[in-house]
Amino acid sequence: MSFPGPGQAPLGPAPRGLRRFTTPRPPREEECELCGTPLVSERHRHLVDTEKRALACACAPCAQLLARQGASRGRFRAVPGRFLSDPRHRIDDTTWELLRIPVGVAFFFRNAALDRLVAIYPSPAGATESELDPVTWQTALAGTRLAALLEPDVEALLLRRGEDRTTECHLVPIDLCYELVGRMRLHWQGFDGGAEARAELDAFFAHVREQAKDLQGSRP
User: How far apart are CA 83 and CA 135, in angstroms?
Assistant: First the structure.
């Protein structure tokens, strides 16, 4: 709960009757979903709730506790912070066309509970799961060593097809991919997303490239 600061008028009485439903409510303060600690920073850590297949907010101590080896075998798994890039991947025109994804961005992650790969791409409706045969996904993922490094549930292989027909390939935290989905849904206009969505996409991938370390020894 927030309180008035210096020079501010005190809060009035709580609205009664129908006013309770018409009076705007203050934004809900984010809390760690494990211990209830208020999260002051917008850039807090996240966990994957493997039962609900959803992201959960976490304070730094709880995230660090779950990140320890062997401590993430329960319902919650800490999302790591590593970024890797594979500039020598073999995802070419033919491989990309096999995916038949209607936009130029997709990400893949392994769902441990289902024991299978899941392919997601952003759309005006949010995160959309591809219905392709998993064998096709495996064909695409065989073109990079990053796929073998993925931590189940918490990391994703992020692909982007550029206008020059080149493809970027990165290993990133799974929460970053859903952040991208939210950005695209917010800024999407028209059939192809529009100029604003493309600018957001360019800025997003510029950030990924700045964070990512090149994978050494990738197959030519």
Answer: 26
Statement: residue 190 has pLDDT above 70: yes
pLDDT > 70 in the chain, percent: 81
**pLDDT of 12 over the 50 cut:** no
CA angle 164, 167, 171 (to 5 degrees): 150
Amino acid identity, position 99? L
Residue keyed to tokens 């660090």: 64
Q: How far is the C-alpha of 50 from the C-alpha of 62, rounded, in Å?
A: 16
pTM (2 d.p.):
0.79
β-sheet with 155-161: strand ranges across: 126-129, 116-123, 105-111, 155-161, 167-173, 84-85, 213-214
| Residue 47 vs residues 27, 40, 155, 163: alpha-carbon distances, Å | 22, 17, 11, 34
